[in-house]
User: Fold these one by one.
Assistant:
Number 1:
Amino acid sequence: MKNKEYIQVLQKILQAMDEGIHVVDPDGNSIIYNRAMAQLEKMESQDVLRKPFAEVFKNMDESESTLMKAILHRKATLKKEQTYLNKDGKEITTVNTTFPMVVEGKLIAAIEIAKNITDIQKMSHTILELRKEIDCPEEAKELKIKKYNFDNLYGKNEKFSETVALAKKAAKSSASVLIFGETGTGKELIAQSIHFDSPRKHKPFLAQNCAALPANLLEGLLFGTAKGGFTGAVDRVGLFEQADGGTLLLDEINSMHYELQGKLLRVLQEDYIRTVGGTKDIPIDVRIIATINEPAEELIESGKFRKDLFYRLNIVPINIPPLRERRDDILLLTNRFMEKHNEKYGKQMWMLSEQAKEKLLDYDYPGNVRELENIIMGAISMAEDNEHVLMPEHLIINRRKSVAHQGIYEIQEGLDLYLEGIEREIIEHALVTEGGNISKAANRLKIKRQTLQHKIKKYKMNME
């Protein structure tokens, strides 16, 4: 393949990438500017290519440009957050990796790879501002924010009762708590119950899902940012300061970037924070409750969870049993959910038929208590106003067990139809577990929302 052909192939590859690619020559003239970068910066390729970088991006100081640093100082920049104005004056935020291309000691270009996080940045700022407004105890009373306590925990099962008893003891101290439980077992309910039964109950309770944001944004969200700390940074109070005196729940803490786990460990050891880009140490008094949904030993062995952070958090370990291990609570919880959703939907489903009881008891509930509630919520919401007995046909339950549990199935209808049946049941299960929310169900299934919508239409599923 000739050099010209190589270049044509490279250009096609770069144009197909989701990340923005911007390449400048040693004189600072743009020589590659792919479609994703053009969309990100709201620019036209012809307005950028073969023109000096400084002329096109007049709103950006050359000293703050990672591309110019690569050209002028041959300096690489890895995953740097950068906020700047495009040609229309609109603020955009990206995470950039930039590096000089040097061949035989000669600089031939500088390459920048950019990922647009503008919407995510706005979301994190909005979260902080909203929490700053509503999480003060005095204002929270007026807004009637939903709070959970031990009275909201239902169950007579021995294992579950032991869990609740341990949580009540934990509420009397300020020691760190690590809660382990599968998805849907009620980890946040336990965490809130501990806080609102503790001496800190009149102080803020804040929660952050560590899987919801990239590492750099999560760090700023937790510790706050200092103006001038990085390009576009402003003074912003983080969750630790907002939760001072109260409790901070770190959900799915094993999803936190490994390096950020180390910074969190130092905060827990020293009881002070330093804002991102700041130089001042800020003392804090925050109780940490963390949750994981996989066994700690497996997470540590796989490198997802720092061992030293585990030991620092695991002062009070609380394990929540899955619903399949507390089957004696299934009907108790069902009755509670029936009362709740009768009121919500204005229905009068007073009792369960014996067949409905059998159907509910003969299921493993991989989505745990949350899945059970979604099943009952679906049944109540779809029932007619004149129906008073919940029947098995009201209950949408994925009853197919895995091959590992049931052995190899006898396939009579042919492989294609059989596999379609499995796919339909899996989709139905995901939709029920997520309360009919297509976006959440798609995320659970790890497929695109449009793909799920296509399959719902294909299998003629009623989503009303």
Number 2:
Amino acid sequence: MTTIVAEAAATDIRALEVFCDRWEKAWNEHDGDAAAALCADDLVYDEPALGETAHGPDSIRAFVTQMAQAFPDYSFTRMGLYGEVTRRAVLVAWRFSGTLAGTDRRVEFHGDDRLELGEDGLIHAYRCLYDYRFVLSQLGRAESEK
């Protein structure tokens, strides 16, 4: 397994790419176990759009499962990868596309994952940012209906 070395936060670009390839693959294969395996036990998972902060790898495992149920054909396409120069952190810009289960309503939007990595090479803090109102508008819903 490729890990991110503490003193080479953003200088080992290949290690960042390999790690983010694994992150993207886990999500695109709807594999909650693989996504959770990249997260530390003390993970803090923050998704402001949903008004939730969760903890631990099980929260990621559960969210991948929920996403696969809600959007069975969902996929993420990485649009950019940006390494922090002063700490072990990376921003992954992505594009989501998927069809809401039981409908023909297709959703496409951009977002960013902000991943803070520990010395163990695992994600300790994960913040997922995107425009939730835009997602709801594509689904024909008002924010009060969420």
Number 3:
Amino acid sequence: MSRKEVCAQYGVNAGNLSVKLSRLQVISQTIARMYPCQYDRMDCPVSKHSLASDLDRLP
């Protein structure tokens, strides 16, 4: 979806969306530095495998 479409669909200002996406990227990079393991490894606490199992448990 384009930024314009997302903003129209959710009633969000394009500038605010950009700021929030930038903040999320900083948070993501910080977490990646905290957990320098490989994303595909089963023993990594933030691997796609453990994250997927966490999502399966959400209501």
Number 4:
Amino acid sequence: MRIIKAEMLAAIGESHEHRNQYQLDHRIPLALGGATIHRRNLMLQPVALALEKDAIERCLAVAVCDGRLGLDEARAAIWRDWRAPGAVCETAAGNPGAFD
């Protein structure tokens, strides 16, 4: 994975010295059945955004497990724009059994 991250950093013109500012993240998270090291499922993200995305990933995984969201629907939503499913989580906040 280090090699993949180094190649992706080089592709965006970022130096190796800044590698700790980025995280190699899965477009479709492993909890939703995303491929572990398939390059198409990997993306480089600034650490702060990756942490934000992690919360949405947890929310979607719980929603799928609870039957509130279909697995294919969750995968498609996070693939298109990982921020969009966050509205589902915000809507559910404060509800009994809400996923967060």
